[in-house]
Amino acid sequence: METEVLVKQLKQKIEELTTVIEASKRITSTLDLSSLLRIIMQLATKVMHAETSSLMLLDETKQELVFEVVEGGEKGEMIKEIRLSVNEGIAGWVARNGEAVFVPDAEKDERFCNKVDMKSGFRTKSLICVPLKVKDKVIGIAEVINKLDEGTFSPDDVSLFSALIDHAAIAIENAKLYKDLQGLFLSTITSLATAIEAKDPYTKGHSERVTRLSLAIAGKIGMSFKEKERLRIAGLLHDIGKIGIPEGILAKPAKLNNEEWGIIKQHPAKGAEILKPIKQLEDVIPVIRHHHEKFTGGGYPDGLEGEEIPLGSRIITLVDAFDAMVSTRPYRPAMKRKDAINEIQRCKGTQFDPKIVEAFLACYEYE
Ligand SMILES: [Fe+2]
User: Fold this and answer.
1) N or C: the chain end with fewer CB closer than 10 Å?
2) Structural domain harbouring 243
3) Separation of CA 364 and ligand 1 centre (Å)
4) How far is the CA of 268 from the centre of ligand 1 (A)?
5) 292 C-alpha vs ligand 1 centroid, how far in Å?
6) Among the three residues 177, 208, 228, which one is the final residue of a domain in this structure?
7) What are 329-349's pLDDT values in tens digits?
8) Who contacts 278 (Cβ-Cβ below 8 Å, separation ≥6)?
């Protein structure tokens, strides 16, 4: 009999440990926060033998707890819109005090508030509620409700649940750091784009417009999220090489002579050269280098053709040409939108990839 109990306990410990290992493995392999939190709560529900579980994040300005994950049944969606003040319920108590609680019988606990049960028709019996902490600051709470088999949770379960939820807190912190870094990176890129335009007053807003329309085309041809992010940066920075071109040529209020054209044509390769030391831009650089290639060859700097030209470059080259046509230049007025669209159509299959021309025209379908 005693051996049986030991085996059972051992089996349970193994299951618990496997869950914790599983959770940390998944945390390091993904950065999508919401699915990660859902995975952690699913695992927690399973290993704690709980009927349901939820994770709430603290809205600091409103001092309210908001549901992020609700596990265990279709009632979850119903209660997701409920917000709890930090002054109510056991969840509120945990958020205020930053301490885990184990409640064997919810109805006998005076902190218990049945607001969520009323809405869902669920009946909370026992629960464990733990705080989610990042550097000693409470950022939310997580709870498991109603033990499925042996009636109630044990105080031992509290430490296991806390260990799992610590992983969730780390994941939230990592995702936040990642987002902050991405934000910092993008704002640096945007100020670089502004610096390019400061040199060439006639192209103000050009990079932003090229990026916007390029992304619309990317959406039409079903580019992935990653490809679109790459295209966004390439769009903003495609003319960065102009930083190395004399202003006298860039802002010349007349047509350029051959020698000047030769210098202008260096800007895609110069741009690629400038960005080369930035490791994060490795995939973006070829898109920038080839944004003046032609679909049938003969463009610059490398005279690539067809699919040899990166897809992102084939998009930017078209949008770039379109935006240039509809913008006023020192030596000519802006072309009418309709005429510019016709011109793009005329160059379908020669200067531009026919597939991209189609997607471009689809973006203008309802204009
Ligand atoms: Fe360019």
Assistant:
1) N
2) 200-363
3) 23
4) 6
5) 6
6) 177
7) 777 889 999 999 999 999 999
8) none
